[in-house]
Amino acid sequence: MAPLIDPFGRAVTYLRVSVTDRCDLRCTYCMAENMTFLPKRDLLTLEELERLCSAFISRGVRKIRLTGGEPLVRKNIMYLVRALGDKVKNGELDELTLTTNGTQLARFAEELAEAGVRRINVSLDTLDPEKFHSITRWGNLEQVMAGLDAAQKAGLQIKINAVALKGFNEAEIPQMLEWAHGRGMDFTLIETMPLGDISEDRTDQYLPLSQVRARLSERYTLNDIPYKTGGPARYVEVQETGGRLGFITPLTHNFCESCNRVRLTCTGTLFMCLGQEDAADLRAPLRASEGNELLLNAIDEAIGRKPLGHDFDINRQNKKPAVERHMSMTGG
Ligand code: SAM
Ligand code: SF4
């Protein structure tokens, strides 16, 4: 079948699937304290998510990332991981990955590795237990550390993702970098994006990575490297640690021109861009017939509307988020 090519000639080969909007944490930059989650009856079943993923694979998607909310809190999630992992094993997919907060990894690491997952991203914004508790509103850092140990023991490669937050982890970044590289993990910094109402002022949290990078280069030798994971991160090698450091900079350096991805929510809504409201409903065509014709037509129609890029803006005049939905709905 024909590949999915958007109006700007970009091939869509990467699907991110948010398998639940729920989470066991409430990171302050991601969620409001009192979130209203979707009623369970609105969710696609895991079998339906598998069918949707297979439809995308049949149209040239080669990489799938499961995210959320917290993907590992979705009941029976290993069913979907195993089904997609089998597609990695038989060559239909190049890679199946996961973005997780790490709280459930001690329980799942071994099974993930067995199912065919090789790399995972673990989000962690601080190494200080009290600060971790406050940024996640109630999380326990020890639980995440035990998860990381289990994941490494199971042979999973880990990338630590930290959101750079002004006055929160700014001073801790060198320590985090050395800790991650010391354990053989990649380390990536992310700029906060204006997604969803979080009951706090984002301009107080926003820390431009251009500033962080300038400060890091006073202390370390950062060598540009061509390493790419198919994502928007730009990597450097830190000469002193020998490890990789990534920067995801949607605000200071727009990365849309090479975008190869679309995002599916747990209700079957397809977002063609993380930073735009436009979306396509795939649940209705999925459920309308057992064959995939209607579904594939709806996917084609949606890819035909993929926009060139986002227009994030964080400033004091513009207090509204760029889009109303939270990152936990489309999964970052
Ligand atoms: N719960 C999982 C986790 O935390 O890794 C997966 C979902 S979470 C929404 C995915 C990533 O988005 C995390 O690395 C998180 O730090 C990041 N994130 C959440 N809200 C964000 C925002 N407003 N701006 C930038 N990154 C954000
Ligand atoms: Fe949950 Fe991940 Fe959002 Fe934190 S960033 S509240 S862990 S979904």
Q: Keywords for this structure?
A:
single chain, 332 residues, alpha/beta, TIM Barrel, globular, binds S-adenosylmethionine, binds iron/sulfur cluster
What does this 3D model show about the protein?
- The protein is α/β, with parallel strands linked by helices and 332 residues long.
- The protein has one domain (14-330): Alpha-Beta Barrel (TIM Barrel).
- The protein is 31% helix and 17% strand.
- The protein contains 11 helices and 12 strands.
- A 12-stranded mixed sheet has the order 7-8-9-6-5-4-3-2-1-10-11-12.
- Helix 6 (173-182) links the parallel strand 5 and strand 6.
- Helix 1 (46-58) runs parallel beside helix 2 and helix 3 runs parallel beside helix 5.
- The two termini are 29 Å apart.
- The site of S-adenosylmethionine (SAM) has 20 residues, from strand 3, strand 5 and helix 11.
